[in-house]
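Subject: sequence -> structure tokens, single chain

Hey, anyone have a minute? Need the predicted structure for the following. Not urgent.
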Amino acid sequence: MDIEVRIRGLMMDPATNMPIVVLKDVASEAVMPIWVGIFEANAIAIEIEKVAAPRPMTHDLARNLIRYLKGQLERVVITEIKNDTFHSVLWLRQGDEIVTVDARPSDAIAIALRADCPIYVAEEVMQSARLNTSGQPEGPTGEQLRGWLEGLNDEDLGHYKM
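Reply:
Had a minute. Here:
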């Protein structure tokens, strides 16, 4: 079963200085962090803040290609974690045909925001990521980080600066 999530915020990991996308279960208070690259975080932040670029960025191009080919991005699903790396799939519809395309979660999220489609996380991924949220051998424990993430307020999230 897949769990619908929304982006709760973007922030920098205080231990690694890497960007984190914080996803929140729409039906509960559960949160799941995904560490992403700086460029991907910037692409997500630009869309969250609705900043218009003078020319299409890569994720805008992907959305435009889907549209011009008479397709529709129906959903994005973060499907699994392999070797501490999240994997996701884009669910595309073209006419009566559904096609799934492998994508990095950061790219999938950036495209989903532009296409205004829902984002889901496989239930087992949400459980696994919530239990082992640090993803790093040093730094805070998963339990400490989860408590820290769940305690963040709107002012802590959303003030994303590169």
